[in-house]
Amino acid sequence: MPVKVYTDPLMLAGPPELTSDVARFLARANCLAGVENFTNELHGSPSHESIAAETVALAPRTRRRSLEGQAQRLLRVAWQTELAARLTAVFDEPALKRVTSHTLPVHAYYALFNAQRALSRARGSPVDTHRGVHDGFAKQGVTQVPMPWAATLAGDPEDIEACVLSPPFMECFAVDPLKRSYEPAAYLLAALRMARRWKYERARLDWLNAKQNRKADATVRKRLPKGERTRIVSRMRPTSLLDFIYELRRQTHYETTDEYGTEVTDEDVERLHRGFDRLLDHGMLIIEAQVACAVGMSELRSQTAAWEQSTRRIGAWASDPLRERVKAVARATVSVTRTG
Fold it and tell me: What does the pLDDT read at residue 335?
């Protein structure tokens, strides 16, 4: 008697149809995975030791300050938000990762944003607005951090020959973020260019919707006047990785989450999550190292111990990444002290 074979139709599923939503998801996943690979190229894997050492070496030498109460609270907010972003890295369940993909940009951005707010207080110049944090990082902060966080892109994002990378880690060229065949550095360029396009589009719409720019009959223009695109671009500051994360977060809050509900593969969902996890981990490490340089290593250790105590009911996994980062920062500060 012949044996009847039942085949799970999911096992036969091919790649998803390349709709606009699928394309947007894949572009994000590819850029994040590429930035992770570029970071590994630059700093090795694991990257903590190299990133911490470079950050401490670049940190401005200022008079030590105490970490006041609001700065301590903001650090805890940042660590708690990071913990929410890391849930899917601990509970490795594909369905959970798929459902929570759209919350990753939100948690990653707000963890970094509040950590930056804490750092500004540690340095004695509190900054609490999104624009203030973004402008400060793009104009000065990038000079005090290692690559890939040090990278910025200026110029018109639609004119690749007019784009300017700083530092010039590669020549600008038109990267197709749907392809996975480029060298890792190309995906950092793609992420910055993508973010700059989004920022330009918002600036364009703001100009068109401004009352003073409307037609004589008070209707909104459909197109920019000749030369206005150039003027808008010239007013845009360089775009950073922080802008890329912010724009992803802003879109999920105010525009659409459709791309996160597409029929992409589990592998692509995993690449998105892993990329965000590594980018967030490295971003937090940089800020924590800068806090230590501003207020002293003992103060950072004290705040870390308090955080570990508050999460003990959750389990060691809740504070493991922070603990590893602080160890790397401690070794880096000792090394700089000895050589300085």
Answer: 66
